[in-house]
Amino acid sequence: MSGTKGRIHQTFKMVLLVMTTMMLTYPSQGYSQGVLRSSGLGFRLGYLKTAGGTVRFDVSNDPLARQAVSIGGFVGAWAYYYSRLQDNWFLEFNLGFQAGLDTDSQLNDSTKVDLNAMVPLLMGVRYDLLSLRFPSRFQPYLSAGVGPYWQVAAEFEENGGITERASGETKMNFGGYLGVGTHATITSWLSLEMDVKYHFIDFKSSAGNSGVEFGLGLTLMWGRLPELFRVEGTSMIVRDIYPAYYPLYNDYPLALVTVKNTAGFPIEVNVRSRVSPYSRRWKNSGFTKVEKGQRADIPVEAVFGYQLQEVDTRKPAVMEIEIEGQGGGSNLKKEVNASMTVHTRNSWDGEMDKLVYFVTPDHPEIIQFTRNLVNTLADSDRPQIGNLTIAQMIFEELGRLGIQYQSDPNVPFYKDDRVQYATETLQLRSGDCDDLVVLYASLLQSLGIQTAFVRVQDPEKSLAHLYLMFDAGLAPEQAEVISSNEKRYVVRDLQASGQYAGGITRPEQNRVWIPVETTLVPQGFDESWNTGALQYLEEGIVREGLAAGWVEIIDVR
């Protein structure tokens, strides 16, 4: 008998050694390694030592000696299921079958057998003691639950192999349990469970079948692991990419990613993104701290390269977004995508404040064009050169080149307007009001002359119109140098218009600006000046278009 008990003991030690080795040597899988998945189903063996039970073995090879065995409680198996409620809290269900046996054989060949069985159906909760910031292969927990304990008791007496008496009874008792245990993760889907529970039958520790239970089992796990964060949505701010606006996109969020912290501690989240193949590199938002249970809207930006300026047909594109969270010594990465449309390099969505992105004063051809004109002036005239002289000279040169107004072809309402860059208009020798304003502004800005668009959306007309005004470089008291008619120019407060950002004070805040109707290039500068000044007076002042908002001045910066 002692030899058999020794072999059982050695086998049990070997099983524990193998399982421990698996848990210690299985490769780590990053965040949440060891943290339980959201659901699990397991099978557990248990031994319940009842409060009044005594473990007794009285076995002898002598057939005339008394033979008695008592296990002092119940041995059985449990099936159990758990599901995560929130963070470290789980709901668990337990269904068990346990049996106890007492036998006593007397010298007169009489035998008494007491058989007890118990079927508990219990529901409870479990709380994992380790915070999610400390993922571990061993997850200790506390548990508690209640439910019915269905019990069957039977008694048999035999004498000489003949049953002389048999009796039995069944009863249903309600009770509960308190427990402590640990889940030891073997793989991401399998764990070893070891626990100790105290069962209170009729909620009394002294009841007949109340006692301590020792359990050991295996759990098959599935479902989502607890995460540092959850991506709750991506809100697109810009779905249509216009190549001309790339300076705006480099500092303007294209989307917002909403992230919720689902860990039990503060985390930091960084978002990096790109629009392939138009981005030179990934753009990082920088790490944003998100408190436990809180949400954060993190801006998504992109850095565009020269490839964006080469788009000649409208194409679909995908914004790739990577969200990285860090906290508790762990990190987690997720990826989401968003669809976009990249328009052609000349496309314009009609928003007037975006037209300024087509102005290219730093283009080499534009700089060469204006420098050649300025260099034609005689050296003796240079001290007298002013903004008006330069603006007139450039305008007249455009007339000599034969540049004319040409309206754009009719396009469907759902398609973009088309704007030519200044170099394209110089090459084509024609353009509509948008194109000519962009050309003239580019040329003046390349020489340091500030310009502004004048947008007119007359409520009495179906189409909008656009012309230009430029800074004459004069204070109001110097305006007579260019004209004695004050209706031929506009006095602007540059501080109020935002020309001097940050509240910088200049001695000459009020400046003289000259309106020019750029579609009249063939008629010459004077005619264009007179027409522009008259339009500004009639539409902006007399009809109060500026006050009503249908006449708008947009500074080119």
Main sheet: strand order: 1-4-5-6-7-8-9-10
CATH class of the largest domain: Alpha Beta
Class by alpha and beta content: alpha+beta
Total strand segments = 30
Number of domains: 3
Q: And the CATH topology of the largest domain?
A: C8orf32 fold
- Estimate the global geometry from the Cα principal axes: rod-shaped
Whole-Å distance between the termini? 98 Å
In CATH, the architecture of the largest domain is: Roll
Largest sheet geometry: 8 strands, antiparallel, barrel
- Average the pLDDT over all residues and give the rounded result: 84
Assembly form of the protein: single chain
Percent of residues in helices: 10-25%
Radius of gyration from the alpha-carbon trace, in angstroms? 43 Å
Low-confidence stretches: 21-33, 498-507
Count of separate DSSP helical elements? 9
